[in-house]
Amino acid sequence: MALIFLPGLTADHRLFEQQIAFFEQDYRVLVWDAPAHAASWPFDFSFTLKDKAIWLDEILQKEHIEAPVIVGQSMGGYVGQMYAQLFPDKLRGFISIDSAPLQRAYVTALEIWLLKKMEPVYRYYPWKSLLKLGSNGVSTSAYGRALMHDIMMHYDGQQDRYAKICGHGYRMLAEAMEADLPYEIKCPALLICGEKDHSGSCIGYNKRWHKKSGIPLIWIKNAGHNANTDAPALINQLIQDFLEKLLAL
């Protein structure tokens, strides 16, 4: 069985270092630094969320990975849902960590409009303040905050690059929502969300997602938007339990 970890927007493979260390002895693991992130810079920003899911599938084929279990944090969860839309028969399991549903019905026209207008916010917001907000605002633990600070420092002196990645990511997300596709998760799935996730309306989205879809939802006490860095041991156990249930099917 293979675990595919997909980090959130602007984050890289380090976001899942606690999960990789835990699972790499017993499972095949792969973490994908998304296009324009980490070493894949510079990158043409003409791609869509659908393109990302197709590229992910091409990577999995190249690595001879079949029936993957996708674990997506934030933006990574949206990529996972697009993968489920395009390749429903390939996906063995899906775990969302502090992500939200991709279906159009969950968002308002205003929310979609705002998603398309975010790039200037990240371009002109004072970098030091953005650095503090981007690290302290997504995590409640010292480890999680320090990790995200280190990841964001990769963009130090490159705020224009950071803004482009954010702006394109949110536009890409808005366009995928506007496409109004089913984005149905047909495989076993699990929703995980930090009780102190203050990123957008993530808590509200997860409540509605769980209620409408019936997908199990587990709240992580005292965890923020990067719950897997705030409570890594608990998240690892939840993933392990999920995998054991899959193996028993």
Report on the architecture of this protein.
This protein has 249 residues and is of the alpha/beta class. It has a single domain (2-248), classed as Rossmann fold (3-Layer(aba) Sandwich), CATH 3.40.50. The protein has eleven helices and six strands. It has a six-stranded parallel sheet with strand order 2-1-3-4-5-6, with helices on both faces. The protein is globular.
Short descriptors:
48% helix; 11 helices; single chain; 249 residues; alpha/beta; Rossmann fold
* Number of domain units: 1
| Largest sheet, strands/sense/barrel | 6 strands, parallel
Percent strand equals 5-15%
Task: Give the CA-CA distance, first to last residue.
Answer: 13 Å
CA-based gyration radius? 17 Å
Order of helices and strands: EHEHEHEHHHHHEHEHH
Average of pLDDT: 97
Uncertain segments are none
Secondary-structure content class: alpha/beta
What CATH first level would be assigned?
Alpha Beta
CATH fold assignment: Rossmann fold
Number of helices: 11
Total beta strand runs: 6
Helix percentage range: 40-55%
User: CATH homologous superfamily - what is it?
Assistant: Alpha/Beta hydrolase fold, catalytic domain
Going by CATH, the architecture would be 3-Layer(aba) Sandwich
Specify the overall morphology.
globular
Q: Biggest sheet, strands in spatial order? A: 2-1-3-4-5-6
